[in-house]
Amino acid sequence: MVERVEWLKLQVHGRPGRLPRALLTFLTFEDYYQLCALLGSRPRHVLLDSSPESLRAILPAERVMMVWPRLPLLIRVLDRVWPYAYGAHADFVAHTPEAEGTARAAGRRTAVVRTSRGEFRHEGSFK
C-alpha cells in the first residue's frame, strides 16, 4: 500500500488541485485490479509496475506488438469497460512480421503500437 500512496504523492506534488483527478484514476484502476485478482488473472499494475525490460531499450518511432493471452470472458468485458485497463494483461514484444504471424496463428489478439517519447500510439484495429 505504501507504493500506492507514493504514486499519489508523486502525481499531486506541488499541485493540490490534481488530487481529485489522481485519486479518481487510482481508485478506478485499483477496483479493476482487485476484481481481476479475485477472478484469478492478476494484471500488470500499469500505474505502479515499471515497463517490461524488453521495452526499455526500444527507440522512439519503433513498433511494439501487444499480445493478449486467452482470458476468461468476464475479464475481457472488464478490459473493455474500465478506462485504464488497456494493456494491463498484454505482453509487449518487439514487432516483427514473423512474431505477428505466429501470434495470430495461435489465435491471440494483437495490436501494433508505435513508441513516441515513452508513449505508445496505437496503429490498426483492436481485433
Mean pLDDT, nearest integer? 78
Query: What gyration radius follows from the Cα positions, in whole Å?
Result: 16 Å
Low-confidence stretches: none
Major sheet attributes: 4 strands, antiparallel
- Can you give the helix content as a percent range? 40-55%
Order of helices and strands: HHHEHEHEE
- Number of β-strand runs: 4
Strand content: 15-25%
The best one-word shape is: globular
Distance between the termini: 35 Å
Per DSSP, the total helix count is: 5
Instruction: Please state how the strands of the largest beta sheet are arranged side by side.
Output: 2-1-3-4
Class by helix and strand content?
A: alpha+beta
How would you sum up this structure, described in words?
The chain has 127 residues and is an alpha+beta fold. The chain is 42% helix and 18% strand. It has five helices and four strands. A four-stranded antiparallel sheet has the order 2-1-3-4. A hairpin with a 2-residue loop joins strand 3 and strand 4 (119-123). The radius of gyration is 16 Å and the shape is globular. It starts with a helix and ends with a strand. The model has no long low-confidence stretch (mean pLDDT 78).
